[in-house]
Amino acid sequence: MAEKLGAGPSSGPDAGGGEEPIGSRLRRRRKALRMTLKDVSQASGLAESFISQLERGVHTGSVRTLQKISDVLGLAVGDLFTSSEVAAPRVKRFVASEGFSFGVNASKLRLTPRTFDHLEVFLGVFEPHGSTGVEPYSHGDSEELVLVVEGQVDVTVGEQTYRLEALDSIPYFSRDAHRVVETAGRQAKVLWAMAPPSF
Question: What are the C-alpha distances in Å from 115 to residues 25, 129, 132, 135?
Fold first, then answer.
């Protein structure tokens, strides 16, 4: 699919402000996800040569193009314009309303900033009998760990189901179909940790 090419990095979104160039940000994220240029090309429908030129700052892309690549890399376009530097550690206070609904009677709250390329952590809150969904799901190819903070859940990975209580954990690969369901009839909280990010 042909895309309009920009004039160069000095006239595009890579310019100014001392921020990390967009091409470098895309390349860093792609490598963190262990994806090749070919992988991104096939998933986005964009030419491999164009993505390479974009990463090297030879050309800039349209917002539509950046959206396609960002979708493949699990980023929002706005993340490309946000500094990757974390000035200082910042405490994240728990606010239930900041989470987003998912699955059945459950919500999920991202704990790691989107600028992190090698680790992704979520807190999940399950209401009584809530779950990640009716069916198991899979995503990406990350190393993933579920840790129960509070309550009791059943975790299904592949064909096996495991009962976990507070401070129990289970590791698996995100490519394996998995599901979490609250089983004691009371609220449960779990942590998901994924490396690299794939959700």
Answer: 10, 33, 25, 31
**CATH label of the domain that carries residue 169:** 2.60.120.10
Which amino acid, residue 160?
Q
pLDDT tens track for 84-130: 555 577 888 888 778 899 999 999 999 998 888 999 999 999 999 99
Q: Which domain holds residue 43?
A: 22-81
How far apart CA 52 and CA 72 sit, in angstroms, is 15
pTM value is: 0.75
60 burial via Cβ count (<10 Å: 0-12, 13-18, 19+): buried
Choose one of 81, 105, 120: the last residue of a domain: 81
Here the tokens at position 98 are 């900041």
